[in-house]
Amino acid sequence: MKTHYSPKTVSVSDPTLYQQRGNGIPSASNTAALLLVAVSLTACGGKGAEVEHRQAEQQAEQRHQVASQRQAEMRDAAKVEMARVAAPMQMSSNGAVMGMSIAPMPRDYAAIPLAQNKFEQQVQNGIMVAGEIPVSTFSIDVDTGSYATLRRMLREGRLPEKGTVRVEEMLNYFAYDYPLPAKNSAPFSVTTELAPSPYNDDMMLLRIGLKGYDLPKSQLGASNLVFLLDVSGSMASADKLPLLQTALKLLTAQLSAQDKVSIVVYAGAAGVVLDGASGNDTQTLTYALEQLSAGGSTNGGQGITQAYQLAKKHFIPNGINRVILATDGDFNVGVTDFDDLIALIEKEKDHGIGLTTLGFGLGNYNDQLMEQLADKGNGNYAYIDTLNEARKVLVDELSSTLFTIAKDVKVQVEFNPALVSEYRLIGYENRALAREDFNNDKVDAGEIGAGHSVTALYELRYVEVGNRMNDKLRYGVDAQTGQEKYSREEIAFLKLRYKLPAQTQSQLLSYPIRLDQSVKQLEQASDDFRFAAAVAGLGQLLNGSHYLHQFDYTKLSLLARSALGDDPFGYRHEFVQLMETAAAIEQSNQLPIKKTFDGSDKPFPPQDKRHGEPMRDKSNPRNERLQ
Predict the structure, then answer these.
(1) Compositional bias (Basic and acidic residues) at which positions (predicted)?
(2) Which DSSP string do the residues of 477-533 spell out, in sequence order?
(3) Which of 73, 121, 460, 552 could form a disulfide with 111 if both were Cys (CB 3.0 to 4.6 A apart)?
């Protein structure tokens, strides 16, 4: 049974309306800058050198070894596009690349070992005893990058490293049928649902859902966007810079004359390509994006500094001011100290300039850096593996990506030890907060964009007899009367804090979660509840969770297929296919590999038979001539 709450707290003012969109003509300064880019690119000379022909055929045993090694190196980058090589570019301060020198992309750059990807391993949340630690506190998270990178890996036939999947980002990739908040209420609605857990027979599953108010694109207001684009050599493959260029064309098509767009690129050095172009200047924006080429190393730190300078230059009061960083996360030269980057991003966030990160490609991908930069910049992190994902993030969910409706959103749940003996939070490992952080407005937390939904799951176990607890907690014993403070009708008490974008003091929301809102059978829960449970179940299986005692891929498949519900964009059906792929890979990984034949020391696979060598009959080991 779902329970919706309708808080009456604070009004949300209507944002400024857009002006009419129109076809623009490039400004004089930007046109001149782009012509300089074109001249520079033409001067560099055509494409890079072609890949050398294979060496002469070696002996059979050597040929197998070389092919095997080559296959391992190229597994993650089969498609390589040798992009145009950029020559040194010089542009003026009114929209120019200043002193930017980009070296040609190294030949065969895409052959990067998969081990160079950086995915942080999380220590999964353990089972908490409600009688000892009844309060759970965490920051919300609207990132989706972990699910998209998982999808890419599964499509390439491999599983992620255990512990690296962020389950909350899998949950929040999908839309759920949460109600919109009521008018003149908090900027988001709150829904809870309670049903038997599919993971363990003797436990329950609690779902907490938040849904931000929606906002049409026409009401977003004026936007000041700075595209900070990685054009280093690592971005040359087709799934990186070419996909990035197409993705940003989709975004700029949504803008209008009141918007401002700047472009900063970085490789061995950083430079300005566009300086405050009009959002409806389609010709200028498209031309600038199409001229980008990849080459050189990655000076991301310098690029970020320059991007924030442009964001401040074109700052729009009461508008959207955001830097959009698009990269494979390979910060390898220049000012790359993580603490310095975080300090810069947090300072600019306090000045009203947010940071969104878009990840591209694999091979040398830094997922951990992308996620943490967005977290500190009051933005969100998405991974773009296909053009469809670009459309989802930058067109369908543009309002959510750009427009923040609530910041520093924190969740705190106090479990009643009279009814709950144990609980565990599924996911949100790197979003955990101390209990005292909930009331501390100086502690940073996550943001919700317009139309965003947030889902969290707790697995919990009931008890028949309540434990006596600290009388300072809600579900304790009154020190004077010796009686329980509250009845046994509530299993938990949910509290949330948030700030409106322009405020520094948080607002408090609170809701009881009642025992009688539970359903007796999992099948009676909503499709959204069961699908969310399936998504979290896959994430836990891939992470090697120790807490799934009655759950496997077979049960996961049945659960997911029973909860597809309304799926207009096909994301849930896609999940089912990925789930089946993961199950097949997992099964194949468990099969023993026979490395030898007939007890001999021949390698697997067997060596090619040399030309002219007679076929050996296994039933005739001496190879005697048959009569």
Answers:
(1) 595-627
(2) B-TTT-SBSS-TTEEEEEEEEEE-TT-SS-EEEEEEEEGGGB-SSGGGS-HHHHHHH
(3) 73
Closest to 294 measured CA to CA, from 363, 238, 227? 238
Q: Which residues contact 572 (CB under 8 A, 6 or more apart)?
A: 174, 531, 560, 563, 564, 565
Q: Give burial (CB, 10 Å; 0-12/13-18/19+) of 317.
A: exposed
Nearest Cα residue to 374 out of 386, 362, 382: 382
What phi and psi, each to the nearest 5 degrees, are found at residue 322? Answer: -150, 140
**Side-chain half-sphere exposure of 544, counting CA atoms within 13 A:** 10
Task: Tell me the pLDDT tens digit for each residue of 233-289.
Answer: 889 899 999 999 999 999 999 999 999 999 999 886 678 999 999 999 999 999 999
What would you report as the CA-atom Rg of the chain, rounded to the nearest whole angstrom?
28
**Calculated CA dihedral for residues 538, 541, 547, 549, nearest 10 degrees:** 90
Query: What DSSP letter does each residue of 75-97 carry, written as one string?
Result: TT------PPPPPPB---TTT--
Q: How far apart are CA 89 and CA 99, in angstroms?
A: 6
Rounded to two decimals, the pTM is 0.77
40 vs 413: CA distance, rounded Å: 59
Characterize the bridge pairing of strands 354-359 and 381-383. Answer: parallel
Alpha-carbon separation of residue 80 from 235, 242, 331 (angstroms) = 10, 11, 21
What whole-number distance in Å separates Cα of residue 512 and Cα of residue 45? 69
Cis ω on the peptide bond leading into residue 605 (within 30° of 0)? Answer: yes
Alpha helices in 291-391 (DSSP H): 300-313, 338-350, 367-376, 387-391
Q: Measure the CA–CA gap between 145 and 623, rounded to whole angstroms.
A: 60
Q: Phi and psi dihedrals of 304, rounded to 5?
A: -60, -45
Residue 59's Cβ-count burial label (10 Å; 0-12, 13-18, 19+) is exposed
The helix (run of H) or strand (run of E) holding residue 206 is strand 204-212
Q: In whole angstroms, what is the distance from residue 474 CA to residue 159 CA?
A: 44
Q: Token pair for residue 323?
A: 């830097």
Question: Token pair for residue 590?
Answer: 């468990």
Distance between CA atoms of 401 and 393, rounded to whole angstroms? 7
Give the Cβ contact number of residue 598 at 10 Å.
7
pLDDT digits (tens, 9 = 90+) for 358-406: 999 998 899 998 999 999 999 999 999 999 999 999 999 999 999 999 9
Residue listed under structure tokens 């046994």? 488
Question: How is residue 380 written in tokens?
Answer: 């969100």
**pLDDT tens profile 158-197:** 999 999 999 999 999 999 999 999 877 899 999 999 999 9
- Rounded CA-CA distance 150/58 in Å is 39
**Lowest-confidence region among 59-63, 523-527, 574-578:** 59-63
